[in-house]
Structure formats: structure tokens, C-alpha cells
Design goal:
Helix content is 39%, strand content 18%. It is of the alpha/beta class. The protein has 5 domains: 47 residues, Pemi-like Protein 1, Chain: D (Ribbon); 98 residues, no CATH class; 109 residues, Nucleic acid-binding proteins (OB fold (Dihydrolipoamide Acetyltransferase, E2P)); 187 residues, Rossmann fold (3-Layer(aba) Sandwich), CATH 3.40.50; 159 residues, P-loop containing nucleotide triphosphate hydrolases (Rossmann fold), CATH 3.40.50. The chain binds adenosine-5'-diphosphate (ADP) and magnesium ion (MG). Magnesium ion binds next to helix 14. One of its GO terms (molecular function) is helicase activity.
Length: 764
């Protein structure tokens, strides 16, 4: 403890150590309070952050429109704007998607297939050629010493080609080398022509942006030429990268070996002469890591704040009484899996804490999330609170209702169903019972969060199938009570890194175990023309007392005609293919009572085959169903296919899933179906989905209210995300409101990046 003493004129000189700890600058103001023990409490007043003049000028500079950059005319500016590049800051974050090593000119004899190389030589001949098969291409032969190389173009304008590729002309060329048999070829190389008598070295020195270095290759759109863009980018990086200030706490940057942002930007755009090409291509160099870390850090900082906003609020501290939970466990014909028990314990612990719970239960299809949720619901009911369970579709809400009601009836707990198809008197009666607190568990669709619904005492909100709800809806549910706990269930197995990002402000519980006795579903891709065989399989299973699903896709734009196809197909199957079997149809346009009747008869085995549109995608549970035929399987997304398939393989009998395909598959379509054939593991399927579709499309980060990534690649950079998250959460733990002077710049930068999206956390 440094000793301080008062001077004669009542000044209190502070030791440098204290000044630093409080982050004081000349002119800063403090409040001083005396506490009961005669100690002084010093609190620096947070100044309305006054950014330094240099910061202000730098920010202004970064907003310079691209059209003011040398080499950017109105046309190029327009093309760039279409790519979202309006200011120089946008351009700085347009990173190359690969690099070319143009440090050396390679003799023709030593060109390596598979690599992009730079070579020099003289044009020997240039002719349009027509193959025997009628294919046209343009061929140029290039010579250096005794070696010849063939360059080819497959789309070309002959007049234009003849004019530039004149025999005798010398140039420096760049292109990817390929090998056909013994011959090496380069397709559509780029050319830099030598002037009369000029040496290769002199020409390279003339264009130091494009030669003698590792050269960036930018993602292109039509109307952009690499060479032009490269020159523009060089100008932008040289002039404006120094304006980008690093706001990361210096200690964090040091711990992770990060560079100043300006240096990192320079390195990823125009790498140093001795750069490691492999590292660059993999985004593993210090430059890329710095940019990615920076991006993740501010994302996680915002998430940490948002989460802090939730956990610091007072919430309900439930007590576990076992009034209903114990009896339910006794009623169940099975015991909980270890994973269910673990997750339930995590939930209970958080429900008992005096802060609102905000937890995501993630688990593969059929792992028993609903049961865990019900047990959590019963804990709330035991404490005299109401529970709202929200499902994305009416049919799923109804199914939850049937399941949960089945158990709760035996426990003496009142469960009500509230959907938008409930009208008039029936509806007002339900609403009345909810408001009076007579309904202990209320299950419904988004109808549950409508204005008119009032709860007597809501203690827990459960949201099923999270990815269909936005953050907003979660918030609305929360406002139906006084900081109730929120539990979110998702059947979409989300790769961990992505879960952390998209749901970063939720705590995560994973049920990573299926109830015992489940057998993996044998999955096969079968072409339409073997349909009869597939019908044979259905017949066999039904003969064994099993049941089957036949699924039709409903594509939104053509919903009507697809619906017609599904109904027609059902009729065709009922009358011509399976006249001896009992067949039902289920689709989204049916009334809830009709749907429920059909579902119930299928469940009670009064139907052998259920022809359905994807309304059965989630939640339907009929363990006796052992075959699923998915028509036009190529039209479904991977996670949807996985959800659908999860409807079979729920009992101990071995089950099959047949993916019927029509016509030729697209490359992605084929990939998706092969993944389905090769694994039943939801996590592997989710990873594959992420790989095929890319993260943007996967859950919709925008829907989740998150900033977009500029440089990070969630698949590649998972490790960095975790590191950045730890650092960011540590900062918020030490300074929950980012009030400390040393965090002032962090706070400003955070507000700038997140815009209005931090309102809920009360910072912006
Ligand atoms: P999810 O919602 O996770 O897809 P469900 O909660 O619908 O899965 O559970 C699927 C089926 O497994 C239901 O029939 C449920 O009763 C049953 N089930 C849940 N937990 C167990 C368990 N521990 N042992 C056996 N069956 C279970
Ligand atoms: Mg479910």
C-alpha cells in the first residue's frame, strides 16, 4: 500500500503507481467520498469520451470515398460499391482470397504443374484452333531458349487476341500451370509486355506492385481487373492503413502475439519479400491472426456485455422441492441418460441462482430434450410459478401438448394449449385461465408472446427449436414475466464454435448421448426409376407390423402445386400402389384438429403409411415407424434431412431411410445426400452443412443480431474465437460497464462496431 500524505496547501500527491492504476490524465475529475471507516473512495468520473484529435482525423480519413483514390474512375467506383466497398476502410478489409508468388521468373523448362508461376519469353505463334471434336480455342506458343510452352484460351475474341499476341513480341506472363500427358500448358495467362529492347528485370522494376513480390489476388466481380485493383489497393493500403488504430488492450495483443492493425493490414495485402506463402494462404500468419482476433474480440466483448446485462439482473431463485419431478421420474418407463442427468443438474443449478437463467440445450434429434425441459418446467411449477413453452409450429406445439399433458395429468399439473387457431370464446377462456394462474404450463406457438396474453406469474420460458426464433422473440417472452428464466432447446446440432458465436450470450448445455437401444438409420440414395423396389421395402416393413413415412418437399414459391403433387401422390399410393394398406396424409394446410386426428391414428397404428409434407420435420415421435422415404431428397437442406430422418430409428428395431432423387444431382446436392448416407451423427452433419453452405447461411447471424464478419472464417478460425472470447469476457468481468478510463477507447470502438445492437445491454 503506497503511503500518501497531505501537503501544506491541502494537495494530495499520488504515487505514480496509483495514478496509473486509476488511469488518470491531467485534467481528469474524480469524486471523493469518505466512508464510515474514514477511508477515501476515489472514483474517476467517466468523461464524455473525448477522442484525441489524431483519432478523429484518422477516422475521417478512413471514411474517404473510394472515388477519390487515384485510379478509381466513376465506373470502377460503381463496381466496387456493388461489392459493398464505398470507403477506403471497406477496401482495407477486402482481403485477398489467395496470393501469387511472383518473386521469381521461372524458366519454361522448370515450370511446375499445379502452381501459379511467372515466366518470360517470346511469342512464336498465335492461332485459333478447332479440334476434331469441333471445340475452338486460341493457342499461343511461347519460347525461351530451347523450351516451348503452349498457352490456351477457351473463350476469346480472335481479332483482339491476334492483335496483342503478335509473334516476336516479348513479355512476362503469369498463370496456373497444368499438365496434360507430357505437355504442360497455361490457360489464359496474364501478360506484361516488354518494350523494344527492354530487359525482363527492367520491366519488373517498372511495376513493383505486380512483380518481384508475393502478389495479392482479390475476390473479383465482373468488371474488375486484378492488375487495376491491385494498384488501387496498393495506394489505399500505403496511404490509409496507418490510419487504422488498434484499440485492443496492449496486454491482450502481447499475450497473443498480435501486430498493430496497420501493420497487419499491410502484411495481408502486400506481404513482405520473405513472406511464407503457405502461411498466408492458410490465413495463419501474424497479419491474418491479428485481424481475425480483433474482429472476434469485439464480437465477444459485445456478447459478454449483453450477457452481463442479463445475469446481473435479479432473477428468481427457485428451490428444488421434488414435488413433481420425483414422481415423474417414477412414472417414466425408462431412466434418464447420463447426459440428460448432467444437463438437468446444470439447469437446476442455474434456476436456483438469484439471476435469470439464459441457457441453450443443444442435442441431436431424439436425445430427449423435451423430457429435460419438462423436468425444468416442473421445478418452476413446484415453486408456484407458471411456465410457457413456445414451439415454432402449431403441429409441434400440439405434439408437445399431447406428450406433456399425458404426464402432467397423472401428476395433477394443469397444462393448456394456446395457438393462433384458437378463436372466440375458447380463446378468451384459455387467456383467462393463464392470467388467473390456473394454467401452470402453457404450450403454444408465437401466440404465447402476443400482447393479449398475460401471465399471472411466469417463472420460466422454454423455447423449442431456437434457430427459427430471433433474439427479439426471446426478449418478448422474457417480458411476459418479471425476469423469468429462459431455456432454449435446439435440435440443430451446431458446431461449437458457431454456437458460441451465434448464441454467445447463452450458456450452453449439450446432451451428447442418445437413449440406449437406438439403432442407426441405414440410409440410401435411390434413383426414381427404382421406385418399385422402394415400394417393396415399405410393403415388407408393414407386413412386419411396422409403419412408414413418405415425405414430400414443400418449396415455398410453388407451395400450391407441390401440395397438389403430395395429395395426388397420396391418392395414387392409396389407390394403385398400396390398396391393401391404410394410408393417411398430413400437410400444413390442414386444420389443427384434422392434423391431430391423423397424427393420433398414426401413433395408434390405425395407419400404416403417413404421407406428409415437411410439417413432420420436427418433434413427431412414433417409435414403431421404421421406414422413411423422402421424395425429391435433393431439394432438402442437410439439417432438414437430418431432422426428418430423426423421425425413424426411435425404437429398437433397425430402420431405413430412402432418399429418392429425380434427375441429375447438382454438385452440392450430391454432396449433401452422400453425407446423409455416410453418417447419423448430427454434429458431423452440421459441420458438413456448414462447409457446404458457409456460415452466413447456416443460422443467419444477422437474424441473431450480430455484426457480420469481415475477415474471420468461423470454420478456419475456431481456436482464435475461443481465445478472443476468453480475453473479452475477462475484460468485462473486471470492468462490467467498461467504465475504467483505460477501457474508454474499447468502449467507443465497441459502440462503433455494434451500432445500435447493444441497446439491450444498456451501453450504446
Ligand atoms: P428430442 O426432442 O431431443 O428430439 P425427444 O425429447 O422427443 O427428443 O425424445 C425422443 C424420444 O425418446 C421420446 O419418445 C422420449 O420419450 C424418449 N426418451 C427420452 N429420454 C429417454 C431415455 N432416457 N431413455 C429412453 N427413452 C427416452
Ligand atoms: Mg424435440
Amino acid at each position: 500500500m503506497p503511503i500518501v500524505s497531505l501537503s501544506a496547501d491541502n494537495l494530495l500527491p499520488l504515487p505514480a503507481e496509483l495514478v496509473a492504476r486509476l488511469g488518470l490524465q491531467p485534467g481528469d475529475r474524480l469524486t471523493v467520498e469518505v466512508d464510515g471507516e474514514g477511508r477515501l473512495l476515489l472514483t474517476p468520473l467517466r468523461q464524455p469520451s473525448a477522442p484525441s484529435l489524431a483519432d478523429t482525423i484518422n477516422r475521417k480519413n478512413l471514411e474517404t470515398p473510394m472515388q477519390f483514390i487515384k485510379g478509381v474512375g466513376p465506373k470502377l467506383a460503381e463496381v466496387l460499391a456493388k461489392k459493398g466497398i464505398v470507403t477506403v476502410e471497406d477496401a482495407l478489409y477486402l482481403l485477398p482470397n489467395r496470393y501469387e508468388d511472383r518473386r521469381q521468373v521461372v524458366p519454361l523448362a522448370r515450370l511446375q504443374p499445379g502452381r501459379t508461376e511467372v515466366f518470360a519469353g517470346e511469342v512464336v505463334s498465335a492461332e485459333a484452333v478447332v479440334t476434331k471434336g469441333g471445340r475452338r480455342f486460341f493457342e499461343v506458343l511461347i519460347k525461351d531458349g530451347n523450351s516451348l510452352l503452349s498457352c490456351k484460351w477457351f473463350h476469346f475474341n480472335p481479332a483482339f487476341m491476334k492483335k496483342s499476341w503478335q509473334p516476336g513480341r516479348r513479355g512476362i506472363f503469369t498463370g496456373q500451370v497444368s499438365q496434360y500427358g507430357l505437355q504442360r500448358e497455361v490457360h489464359h495467362p496474364e501478360a506484361e509486355w516488354l518494350t523494344e529492347g527492354e530487359t525482363v528485370e527492367a520491366a519488373m522494376a517498372r511495376d513493383p506492385v505486380s512483380f518481384g513480390r508475393v502478389v495479392p489476388v482479390y475476390p473479383l466481380t465482373e468488371g474488375l481487373n486484378q492488375k487495376v485493383l491491385r494498384k488501387v489497393m496498393k495506394e489505399v493500403v500505403d496511404r490509409f492503413a496507418p490510419c487504422v488504430a488498434s484499440t485492443l488492450p496492449p496486454a491482450v495483443a502481447a499475450r497473443h502475439g498480435l501486430q498493430p492493425l496497420a501493420e497487419a493490414l499491410r502484411e495481408v495485402h502486400f506481404p513482405a519479400a520473405d513472406a511464407d506463402l503457405r502461411q498466408l494462404e492458410e490465413g495463419a500468419g501474424a497479419g491474418h491472426r491479428t485481424l481475425v482476433f480483433d474482429e472476434f474480440f469485439f464480437l465477444e466483448l459485445g456478447l459478454a456485455l449483453r450477457r452481463r446485462g442479463v445475469t446481473l439482473e435479479p432473477g428468481i431463485a427457485f428451490t428444488v422441492h421434488h414435488t413433481y419431478t420425483k414422481p415423474l421420474l417414477k412414472l417414466l418407463p425408462f431412466s434418464l441418460t447420463a447426459a440428460q442427468r448432467r444437463v438437468l443438474a446444470e439447469i437446476k443449478e442455474e434456476m436456483m441462482a438469484p439471476h435469470p437463467m439464459h441457457r441453450l440445450i443443444q442435442g441431436d434429434v431424439g436425445c430427449g430434450k423435451t423430457l429435460v425441459a419438462l423436468l425444468a418446467a416442473l421445478v418452476a411449477v413446484e415453486n408456484g410459478y407458471q411456465v410457457a413453452i413456445m414451439a415454432p409450429t402449431e403441429i409441434l406445439a400440439e405434439q408437445h401438448y399431447l406428450n406433456i399433458h399425458h404426464w402432467c395429468e397423472q401428476l395433477g399439473v394443469t397444462v393448456l394449449l394456446l395457438t393462433s387457431s384458437l378463436k372466440g370464446k375458447a380463446k378468451s377462456e384459455v387467456l383467462g385461465r393463464v392470467a388467473r394462474g390456473e394454467a401452470q404450463i402453457v404450450i403454444g406457438t408465437h401466440a404465447v408472446i402476443q400482447d393479449k396474453v398475460e401471465f399471472h406469474r411466469l417463472g420460466l420460458g422454454i423455447v423449442d427449436e431456437q434457430h427459427r426464433f430471433g433474439v427479439l422473440q426471446r426478449g418478448l417472452l422474457r417480458r411476459k414475466g418479471d425476469n423469468p428464466d429462459i431455456l432454449v432447446m435446439t435440435a440443430t446440432p451446431i458446431p461449437r464454435t458457431l454456437a458460441m458465436t451465434v448464441f454467445g450470450d447463452l450458456s450452453l448445455s449439450v446432451i451428447d448421448e442418445l437413449p440406449p437401444g437406438r439403432t442407426p438409420v441405414a440410409t440410401k440414395i435411390v434413383s426414381e426409376n427404382r421406385r418399385q423396389q422402394v415400394y417393396g421395402i415399405i410393403r415388407e416393413e408393414v407386413a412386419k407390423g411396422r409403419q412408414a413415412y413418405v415425405i414430400y418437399p414443400l418449396v415455398e414459391e410453388s407451395e400450391k402445386s407441390d401440395l397438389k403433387a403430395a395429395t395426388q401422390m397420396a391418392e395414387h399410393l392409396a389407390n394403385e400402389v398400396f390398396p391393401e394398406l391404410r394410408l393417411g396424409i398430413l400437410h400444413g394446410k390442414m386444420k389443427p384438429e384434422e392434423k391431430e386426428a391423423v397424427m393420433r391414428s398414426f401413433k395408434e397404428r390405425a395407419l400404416d403409411i403417413l404421407v406428409a409434407t415437411t410439417v413432420i420435420e420436427v418433434g413427431i415421435d412414433v417409435p414403431n415407424a421404421t421406414v422413411m422415404v423422402i421424395e425429391h431428397a435433393e431439394r432438402f437442406g442437410l439439417s432438414q434431412l437430418h431432422q426428418l430422418r430423426g423421425r425413424v430409428g426411435r425404437g429398437s428395431a433397425s430402420s431405413r431411410c430412402i432418399l429418392l432423387t429425380a434427375g441429375k444431382l447438382s454438385e452440392d446436392g450430391e454432396k449433401r445426400l452422400r453425407v446423409m448416407e455416410s453418417t447419423n451423427d448430427g454434429f458431423r452433419i452440421a459441420e458438413a452443412d456448414l462447409e457446404i453452405r458457409g456460415p452466413g447461411d447456416f443460422l443467419g447471424t444477422r437474424q441473431a443480431g450480430l455484426p457480420d464478419f469481415r475477415v474471420a472464417n468461423i470454420l478456419r478460425d475456431g481456436r482464435l474465437l475461443e481465445e478472443a472470447r476468453q480475453e473479452a469476457f475477462a475484460v468485462i468481468a473486471a470492468d462490467p460497464d467498461l467504465q475504467l478510463p483505460e477501457n474508454r477507447r474499447l468502449r467507443d470502438e465497441l459502440a462503433r462496431r455494434w451500432g445500435g445492437r447493444l441497446e439491450l445491454a444498456g451501453i450504446a
